[in-house]
Amino acid sequence: MTSVHFRIAPIAIDNGMKLTRTLAAGLLALAGLVTAAPARLTKRSFDYSTEKLRGVNIGGWLVLEPWITPSLFEQFPDYGGDSPTVDEYTFCKTLGSDEAYKQLQQHWESWITYEDFKALADAGVNTVRIPIGYWAFELWNDDPYVQGQLAYFDNALAWAEELGLNVMIDLHGAPGSQNGFDNSGQRGNINWLEEDTLTLTVKVIDELASKYANHPAVTSIELLNEPLGASLNMTVIKQFYEAGYGTVRQYSSEVDVVIHDAYVGLTEWDGFMNTPDYDAVVLDTHIYQVFNNWQLELSLEDHVRAACNQSDSIGLSNQKLWTIVGEFSGAMTDCARWLNGFGIGARYDGTYYKGSSWIDSCDGESNVNSASQFSADKRANIRQFVEAQLDAYETGAGWIFWTAKTEAAPEWNFIDLVNNGVMPQPLTERWYGQQCS
Ligand SMILES: *[C@@H]1O[C@H](CO)[C@@H](O)[C@H](O)[C@H]1NC(C)=O
Ligand SMILES: *[C@@H]1O[C@H](CO)[C@@H](O)[C@H](O)[C@H]1NC(C)=O
């Protein structure tokens, strides 16, 4: 038996989609089919109606981010120059394909290993979200990107399968860049949808889904990370999501299709893909409290309150589409070196741009490699903030921490936070009680 598959006529009521899936899960359990099937052959799925998603992102691996692995970018001291090297695109362009391939292969080989996946599984994580760029599949125009990531990606899927981790595949970069962030591959302009990149993006989803949608460890595919709704045409983003959904469904009726909220607010998605025509759609929102001054000025208590404040809207949205917080961290400052981009300073200590206002010093936060170097007070504060976020986000369908590890930036380093008693272990342990109730 290679797959177990029930089609049940969708029930046309509010939440019909969820009811259908709950029924299907119940029938499977009754029939004893789930436990009877050999593990290797069972296509896993994640049942949001009975389980919270507790996940970790595998950031800075198959898509470079200078602040996650600054050591790869220290070779480019001239970041203030005319054509600075600030992202994976310029990394490949500056080094040329042979040298870029050599360095990237070394990075793919070493930055994330089986031991890291094992550490995540041991910490009680049930899902890893793995960012990958379109350029792993297709090049566009005169792209300097190098390929070869997929062999490492395949290894990661095998580790996940062995360790019982679910995988959310996350298309993190679209041709031309969907947000202008370095983590899209290319920092600066937002050229996605400016030229005819939509067809190519859907083609990449087609390749990705045909290759991976039926992999036993893959439970979901996110069509695109963080398209910047304010700078793009929302109508076209929605058309893209519909095209992407249809493309994934050609290969699998089961794998969850994840859509990012495009930063326009959860209520913008009320009713979208929430009809019997769509099944297994998950809405992803990202919550950080360090990318504008008013949040950086909050006290610990207000950071906690701001996290708890999200509970209602997430819980409400979760009654329409399963809603996850697919990225968040323990950071309450933007002091991590290059967090705002290679060569760019922090808002917190006034080095973001010339004339930035100053909130406090970043001393003791930048250039710290591990939470073990923080004071006990600071570790306790981060833990309190993290606990509040986990509670708030579990009013929805769950959460995915950004990110598994960093070279520095401990507030963002899940494995290091676990090792230093900052991340609750088990993940449901609370030192600060139910802060959101
Ligand atoms: C957004 O795209 C739609 C569909 O192509 C188009 O009809 C509409 O005019 C566009 N809106 C703007 C503001 O460009
Ligand atoms: C929490 O939400 C309330 C009501 O919307 C708002 O007045 C308050 O400023 C929020 N607090 C924080 C810290 O975000």
TrEMBL record:
GO CC, alphabetical: cell surface; extracellular region
Reaction(s) this enzyme catalyzes, per UniProt: Successive hydrolysis of beta-D-glucose units from the non-reducing ends of (1->3)-beta-D-glucans, releasing alpha-glucose
GO terms for biological process, alphabetical: cell wall organization; glucan catabolic process
Alphabetical keyword list: Cell wall biogenesis/degradation, Glycosidase, Hydrolase, Secreted, Signal
Domain annotation Glycoside hydrolase family: ranges: 102-330
Enzyme Commission number(s): 3.2.1.58
Subcellular locations according to the entry: Secreted
The protein's name: glucan 1,3-beta-glucosidase
Species this protein is from: Saitoella complicata (strain BCRC 22490 / CBS 7301 / JCM 7358 / NBRC 10748 / NRRL Y-17804)
